[in-house]
Amino acid sequence: MKLRSPYDDISKEGFAIRLISLYGQSSMSEHACRTFGQLPELKCTRTVKSFNALLSACADSRNFDKADQIFRELPSRLSITPDLFSYNIMIRALCDRGSLDSALSFLDEMEKNGVGPNLITFNTLLNAFYGITGFLMASLLSLLPKHLMRIAGVPKLTVNVSAHLVNWVCVLFPFENLVNFTFSLLMLFL
């Protein structure tokens, strides 16, 4: 009968992801990076899931430069293709850093690489813009319908989609801004 080592679970990616995530929550991004680097020695395959855990650990630790470096360098070295979660983590990191222009550029980059945004992508951007401006910036408002149409798979912005947008704005924004938002939304139909 073989005795089990207390470290056998590290060869399972789920365990490694949890460990990397805990390092991130503890603001220990260097430990997360070291653990990710040691995964092959521990017979644990590095996939986009563990890559995303590492990105998230750096973002959670507010080590934004390291997250950006990892995103730019590791995928090609490790033959990992960033997925929607990877891009959402980076957009969140850029928004947390206050680099909203970079976050919007990242949105363009992800689409160029064949990864479509989802509602989490837009909620992250909307929350960041709301936190800075108190209301949606015109540039984001002009982007929103185009991307929502692609997400929803509808050929044009419908009344149903618009109603959901207006309802969402009613909940998050003061009523005096709702008039401006509704007017801008109506202009999109003309």
TrEMBL record:
It comes from the Eukaryota. The chain crosses the membrane at residues 125-144, 165-189. InterPro entries: PPR_rpt, TPR-like_helical_dom_sf. The keyword Repeat applies. The keyword DNA repair does not apply. PPR repeats lie at residues 47-77, 83-117. Keywords: Membrane, Repeat, Transmembrane, Transmembrane helix. Belongs to the PPR family. P subfamily. This is Pentatricopeptide repeat-containing protein. It comes from Nelumbo nucifera.
